[in-house]
Automatic annotation (TrEMBL):
SUPFAM superfamilies (UniProt xref): ABC transporter transmembrane region (SSF90123), P-loop containing nucleoside triphosphate hydrolases (SSF52540)
Protein's name in the database: Lipid A export ATP-binding/permease protein MsbA
Highest taxon, organism lineage: Bacteria
A single GO molecular function term of this UniProt record: ABC-type oligopeptide transporter activity
Subcellular location, record wording: Cell membrane
Protein's organism: Lysobacter capsici AZ78
Length: 587
């Protein structure tokens, strides 16, 4: 199968995925037929009207008929355009829903290869290209083919020599214009790709605007954005240069066709071979020939653009989703979580992040992971959450591979409190119950907030639980975001609790308040802590020291001081020489 055939198949499959309404499409086609019939009939009626005038009188009924034909054709065309627009927007809406659902089912690794802005562009701009094809260009194709074919038939019936003259002049012009139209198509697809790239860059900049300003990187980001904008401008100017050639050519073709028909037709009228009414009809039919050819050219260009968009969208639909479990095991709380000889390397990278590690997380205990930046701590958490699969080895729960458990059920038993404690757009209440199934009353939400130490500041907010949080929770302090995340965990009631640098960015007083909330939350759970402050992990039941993807030491705080020189040196520096702290950053 050729590449062009594959592209057409991708486009057709995407349109079918949108489940277009057959009834609405049928109404659109029937209305288009009515519009075409009106366009074909109008010049003939005009011919009769003019011939009657030359005979010495005008039949008012004939005038009324011409007006009725014009009005009816216009109304039918409007109905056809509206019904097809309904079909198109229905298809694109369904396609966007399916695309969003697909993106949400993709593994985290899929988002490592393309920026979020580019993915958004696939949902918005690429779907718009398909929408344009369905809502506008398809009806142009249908009416253009019918109108062109019908006009040629009627013209041949009126006068063959004049028809051949008309077609010859118009076709000659379009032979020149079609290659230019295909140049526009290539530029259009390149523009789509550049817009997607610029969307990715700008999305990242605006999401991290505080980082940009904190590091006075406005000039750098401006230069980077200007480069993309200039590239888009250059593509736009190329498109404009071709368009300014193409559009006058179309106008010139129309003018030349009219002049040729007028000169040749006038000679035929003078010779008594045709009537003035017939010549008038021919001039009117010029528009019925030239306009459809233009529509067909536009359809071809839009089809190529839509096929390019469909290839990119089809690529997303073809990506492997997060692993499903054919025969899922029932997940019971309180099991031992165990890593056995687990190794891992991120896709496309040679460096092994974890190398044959063995870990055991017992129920009702707290295990801390410490180590230098890049030692693999965060990767361990990602493997537990099943964001990635181990390259080698296995992770077990109750002695069974964690892949045997349904993914929603598995993640539903894990609570994750991150360093940044991200906040989603919405109210405080919506953030506390975020991702939780079931219905929670105000009393449930307030109880969780109180246990997390968050109720006091929530009650002081303008609308309490119904206060809307701005993007990334920037109207909350770091400690407040952490306590909302902890309140969510109280409602979630997870079996396994992961605390990833949960107190690293807090001042002493706020850290104390958050620690009190965490102590309540950690009771009777399997707790896994990642922290670079040793004061946070020194009371853990078990501390595992990661070094370059391997576990170089295991034990409680006292045992590691005695057996692990590097850990002992860090403890000495952090607690005895605070000005020379060698902190352990999140890995």
């Amino acid at each position: 199968m050729s590449e062009a055939q594959k592209n057409r198949n991708h486009l057709w499959q995407l349109i079918r995925r949108g489940r277009p309404s057959v009834a609405a499409f049928s109404v659109a086609v029937l209305a288009a037929l009515g519009s075409v019939a009106g366009s074909l009939w109008f010049p003939i009626q005009t011919k009769h009207l003019i011939d009657q005038f030359n005979g010495g009188g005008i039949d008012l009924r004939q005038v009324a008929l011409v007006a009725a034909v014009l009005t009816g054709g216009a109304a039918a065309g409007a109905l056809s355009a509206y019904m097809l627009a309904r079909v198109g927007y229905q298809v694109v809406a369904a396609l966007r829903v399916a695309l969003v659902e697909k993106l949400l089912r993709l593994p985290v690794a899929s988002f490592d290869s393309e920026s979020s802005g580019e993915r958004v562009s696939r949902v918005v701009r690429d779907c718009e290209a398909i929408s344009e094809l369905i809502t506008k260009q398809t009806i142009n194709l249908v009416t253009g083919v019918l109108l062109l074919g019908g006009s040629v038939v009627v013209l041949l019936l009126l006068d063959v020599p004049l028809t051949l003259t008309l077609l010859g002049s118009v076709v000659a012009a379009f032979v020149v214009m079609i290659p230019i139209a295909f140049l526009l198509d290539g530029l259009s697809r390149r523009t789509q790709d550049r817009v997607a790239r610029m969307s990715g860059i700008l999305t990242h900049i605006f999401q991290e605007i505080r980082l940009v300003k904190a590091f006075t990187a406005e000039a750098h980001e401006r230069r980077r954005s200007v480069e993309e904008i200039e590239d888009l401008k250059r593509l736009g100017l190329k498109t404009a240069r071709i368009s300014v050639v193409l559009e006058p050519l179309m106008g010139l073709a129309m003018t030349l066709a009219i002049i040729i028909i007028l000169v040749y037709g006038a000679a035929r009228v003078a010779a008594g071979e045709i009537s003035i009414g017939t010549l008038t009809a021919f001039i009117l039919y010029i528009f019925n020939v030239v306009n459809p050819l233009g529509q067909l050219t536009n359809f071809t260009a839009e089809l190529q653009k839509a096929k390019g968009a469909s290839v990119r969208i089809a690529g997303i639909f073809a990506e492997a989703e997060e692993a499903s479990t054919p025969q899922p095991a029932s997940r019971k709380p309180g099991g031992v979580l165990e890593f056995r000889n687990v190794s891992f390397a991120y896709g496309g990278r040679d460096r092994i992040v974890l190398n044959g590690i063995d870990l055991r997380f017992e129920p009702g205990t707290t295990t801390a992971l410490v180590g230098a930046s890049g030692s693999g701590k965060t990767t361990v958490l990602s493997l537990i959450e099943r964001f990635y699969e181990p390259s080698e080895g296995e992770i077990l729960y109750y002695g069974r591979p964690i892949g045997d458990y349904p993914l929603p059920e598995w993640r539903g038993g894990i609570g994750y409190v991150a360093q940044s404690a991200p906040v989603m757009p919405g109210t405080v209440r919506e953030n506390i119950v975020y991702g939780l199934s079931g219905t929670f009353s105000d009393a449930d939400v307030r109880s969780a907030a109180e246990r997390a130490g968050a109720l006091d500041f929530i009650d002081h907010m303008p609308q309490g639980l119904d206060t809307v949080l701005i993007e990334q929770g920037n109207n909350l302090s770091g400690g407040q975001r952490q306590r909302i995340a902890i309140a969510r965990m109280f409602l979630r009631d997870p079996d396994i609790l992961i605390l990833d640098e949960a107190t690293s960015n807090l001042d002493s007083e706020t850290e104390h308040q958050v620690k009190l909330a965490l102590e309540k939350l950690m009771q009777d759970r399997t707790n896994i802590i990642v922290a670079h402050r040793l004061s946070t992990v020194m009371h853990a039941d078990r501390i595992c020291f990661l070094d370059n993807g391997r576990i170089s030491g295991t034990g409680n705080h006292a045992e590691l001081i005695a057996s692990h020189p590097y850990y002992a040196r860090l403890v000495q520096r952090q607690f005895q020489q605070p000005l020379e702290v060698e902190s352990l950053e999140a890995g």
